[in-house]
Design a protein that fits this description.
single chain, 170 residues, alpha+beta, two-stranded antiparallel sheet, 6 strands, globular
Length: 170
């Protein structure tokens, strides 16, 4: 993973975690030294990200990214293409969630920002004993997508629509 991809992933992780994340946790997750994480955090702060270092770890106080939720519908075979469409246009797939009639909102954090992460996700679904959340709601599901600006989110929406991934009735 390139340093800019790692920094984007760190921001997204900080945005979705409910608790502080220690430098050691980040170091292990990204396979880099603690010093590199400290440098990444410093660079991210210089870029205007409101990251706070606490005694429990790093937290972000406000998001520098724009966010939009897309209601989508597609087959399992189209999952990789859907995710690639989003990340290739500059988006980060923060999560996936469904609305279940009995259980309410069921959500999983994804934090997918690269093709490598897409490949890892697809492989974990294929080799695991679980299925994607969309299968419990007839393939309808939602993604929270983050990007640097609304123009990127607009391009993502246009392309998802062109590929017929936006759920009917939206």
């Amino acid at each position: 993973m390139k340093s800019d991809e790692r920094r984007t992933s760190i921001i997204n992780l900080l945005l979705t975690e409910k608790k502080p994340i220690s430098g050691n946790e980040l170091s292990e997750k990204y396979g880099v030294s603690r010093q590199i994480i400290v440098r990444d955090i410093s660079i991210l702060k210089e870029q205007g990200n409101d990251i706070l270092a606490t005694n429990s770890g790093y937290v972000i106080r406000s998001s520098p990214l724009k966010e939009r939720v897309f209601k989508v519908y597609h087959t399992t075979e189209q999952t990789a293409d859907e995710l690639q469409t989003i990340v290739d246009l500059g988006g980060i797939v923060a999560d996936v969630f469904v609305w279940h009639k009995a259980y309410g909102r069921l959500e999983a954090t994804l934090n997918i920002s690269s093709r490598l992460q897409i490949d890892q996700f697809i492989e974990s679904v294929r080799t695991g004993k679980s299925v994607e959340l969309m299968h419990i709601t007839g393939r309808y599901h939602y993604h929270t997508v983050r990007a640097e600006n609304d123009a990127i989110l607009d391009r993502i929406a246009t392309m998802l629509e062109a590929k017929s991934y936006i759920a009917p009735g939206n």
